[in-house]
Amino acid sequence: MTERFSGSFTQQQPIPDAAIEAALAVLRHGRLHRYNVAPGELSETALLEQEFAAQMGAKYCLAVASGGYALATALRAVGVQPGDAVLTNAFTLAPVPGAIASVNARPVFVGVTEGLTIDLDDLAAKLDRAKVLMLSHMRGHLCDMDRLMQMCDAAGVTVIEDCAHTMGAAWRGQLSGGQGAIGCYSCQTYKHVNSGEGGLLITDDEMLAAKATMLSGSYMLYERHLAAPGPEVFERIKYTTPNVSGRMDNLRAAILRPQLRDLDRQVRRWNERYAEIEAGLRGTPGLTIVERPAEESYVGSSIQFLLLDWAPDQIAEVLRRCADRGVELKWFGGAEPTGFTSRYDSWRYAESERMPETDRILRGIIDMRVPLTFSLDDCRLIAGIIRAEVGAVFQQ
Fold first, then answer.
1. Nearest alpha-carbon partner for 213 in 45, 36, 37, 41
2. Alpha carbon distance 130, 119 (integer Å)
3. In this predicted structure, what is the pLDDT of residue 2?
4. What pLDDT does 346 receive?
5. Which of 205, 175, 180 is nearest to 192 (CA)?
């Protein structure tokens, strides 16, 4: 009998009991707005910012409504103006070019390598086109951050890190989000902590932190932040920084704080599952494993492999056969955006130039979520199904 996987690729773990109790406490007192506090009370959101800054080794942190809002706020804070060019990855998700478009700037797309990281040679050729790089650590893959930062520092290019998929990851032991001027994280359901939606922004730059806080809609209540610069910094910019409201509320912050305290353990669990799937796929005819560099400590909440130079109908057949056996794969090379997948030429609000080698790689990227609701046996079964169906189509 052909085995079939019967689990869900979108079912997350339950919210921890400690987070539920914290959320109920907020609901019982009713002070959901981050600045609505009783005398002597510290808001859940302010405490979350303080704790996350310490966890990431950053001076300042701001909690906001979503990861995409964090990205757009970072762009505004570093001074991106309408019409400015912003470098970013060709292999990324829609909120990244969307954040650039939201401030009426122009994405300039940079190619992708077979390691699914930004192509540093292509970046070097395009560094003179912009003063800001929004670097997407897409699907949790970290490039050579030493080389990238050396290049950008030498060219005077400010780096904003999109760490939606790298909360808890590191390059040479330095946590993702700490190398650039600003690091942005997502707390959306399918990321590493789950508040439905939500975002976090970190920086060591006091002026950027103050601007981001004002932009988020602090209503001159910035003294209620625990991971923010002193009031004298806000005094310099409070009359000239617009309010683009996008605060996180106390309910979501209460849900997140216990989850963040458990992040390291969850990362280990994701990586156990990732390792099982990777081991089961290794050596499959026609399938290329995405090798991880030794300098990278990653979070295996999703896995990618390549079907390089396969015909589109063959890839579609693999996806169909796997789906028939309960395994949900996404293809970033499809001509039409499907679910969360898209190519840089899908965003028709942004001009782009063709990149043949990048197009070749995008046409071969297959992606799969690895939720923590999977057991290790599930992972072995899933890998076996993919291996069998890729092999069957490859041999036809």
1. 45
2. 16
3. 84
4. 87
5. 175
What's at 231, amino acid-wise?
A: P
- pLDDT at position 211 is 98
Residue 232, both tokens: 């004298």
Give the pLDDT band of residue 340 (cuts 50, 70, 90). Answer: confident
| CA-based nearest residue to 113, from 146, 129, 80, 90 | 90
Using CA atoms, how far apart are residues 301 and 266, in angstroms rounded to an integer?
10
Burial classification of residue 344, based on how many CB atoms lie within 10 Å of its CB (0-12 exposed, 13-18 middle, 19 or more buried)? buried
- Give all domains of the chain, ordered by start, each with its CATH number: 17-257 (3.40.640.10), 263-395 (3.90.1150.10)
Percent of the chain predicted with pLDDT > 70: 100
Q: What mean pLDDT is predicted for residues 88-104?
A: 96
Both tokens of 25, joined, read 């406490």
Query: What is the spatial distance between Cα 21 and Cα 166, in angstroms, rounded to a whole number?
Result: 28
Strands of 174-175's sheet in order across? 174-175, 170-171, 296-297
Catalytic residue among 191, 211, 238, 330: 191
Query: Which residue do the tokens 């030498």 mark?
Result: 154
- Give the predicted TM-score (pTM) of the model: 0.97
The secondary structure of 314-372, three-state, reads HHHHHHHHHHHCCCCCEECCCCCCECCECCHHHCCCCCCCCCHHHHHHHCCEEEEECCC
| Side-chain-facing half-sphere of 3: CA atoms under 13 Å | 13
- Rounded Cα distance between 250 and 373, Å, is 27
Chain segment 107-156, per-residue pLDDT in tens: 999 999 999 999 999 999 999 999 999 999 999 999 999 999 999 999 99
Task: Determine the length of the chain.
Answer: 396
Q: Is 126 a catalytic residue?
A: no
Which pLDDT band, with edges at 50, 70 and 90, does 334 fall under? confident
